[in-house]
Amino acid sequence: MIRIALYVCPQTVLSSLSMADDAFRLANQLAGERLFEVSRLSADGLPVDIGFAQLRVEGDLRLADGADLLLIPATGSAIERTLKGNPELLAWLATRPASQQLASLCSSACLLAASGVLDGRRATTHWSLAGGFRQRFPRVNLQVDELFTEDSNRFCSGGAQAGLDLCLHLIAWHGGDWLAERVAGALVFERGRGRQSRFAPLLPEPLLEDGLIAPLLRWLQQHHAQAIDLQRLAQQANCSTRTLLRRFKAATGLTPNDYLQRLRISAAQSALRKPGRSLEQVAAQVGYADRATFAKLFKQLCGETPGAFRKRLQQTATPA
């Protein structure tokens, strides 16, 4: 029997906790035997108040000493508050032997990283936390494109539903691939969904208080399919190219050309959702005369080809 300890703290995201708990208990049900023994624990063994509910636990961190796997559900985006609120867990994690499996869902990768157990190892977290995570934990090999990572008994998952991808991986690890497939089928969940990068928005949120750039971005939304170079953008914004480059990068984090390409590919994603248009027509509609160039950039930014993107949408839209 595989003993799994789920860590609960005031920052715990209840949906993440319940998703993991449900996955392992469903695996037991479908296997017809108790393969996984799941328990909940807190730092001090007392019930945990998460704001709108109080969660009961079976013990404190000593309960996790004998667990085969400690899994930390998501703890939200307030990373500093999470780290300050869980000193006992950080100290406990730092003492773990390499043989014990440690796993985090979504933002809780920060807890594993802060304890040092991810140093030199591959890890992932929610794509929106990548920048701050890299600055705070430079010794971790962050692979934010991945839905989940595995490295020497250390497991991490990306955002939200990627936690279920990791739970299915752990079920397959301990109970067999056949069981993970049955659990995924019962949950109407697709395994092997690709990379987390295809869920991240292509366009950053701009600093719209810049009175020069904000109207230019609105203009680009309407004219992105046209032939546009830096000089034309500068004329539209009524400024020099040097000023445009500086203020555009400050407002969006991208160069004008990078932003334009992302805008076009984002428009292509919308166009591909509509049936009846060939890939050549979609490419031309968003500003590309060459289908090959369009397809290469689409895959680079979206993690899959335009054809694969369209096929996946058709499959998910088709009723059973």
UniProtKB/TrEMBL annotation:
Q: Which GO terms describe its molecular function?
A: DNA-binding transcription factor activity; sequence-specific DNA binding
What this protein is called in its record is Helix-turn-helix domain-containing protein
Q: Could you tell me which residue ranges the HTH araC/xylS-type domain spans?
A: 214-312
| Domain of life of the source | Bacteria
Which InterPro entries does the entry link to?
Answer: Class_I_gatase-like, Homeodomain-like_sf, HTH_AraC, HTH_AraC-typ_CS, INH-QAR, Tscrpt_reg_AraC-type_HTH
Write down the SMART domains for this protein, in alphabetical order: HTH_ARAC
Its organism's taxonomic lineage begins at: Bacteria, Pseudomonadati, Pseudomonadota, Gammaproteobacteria, Pseudomonadales
**Which chain positions lie within coiled-coil regions?**
none
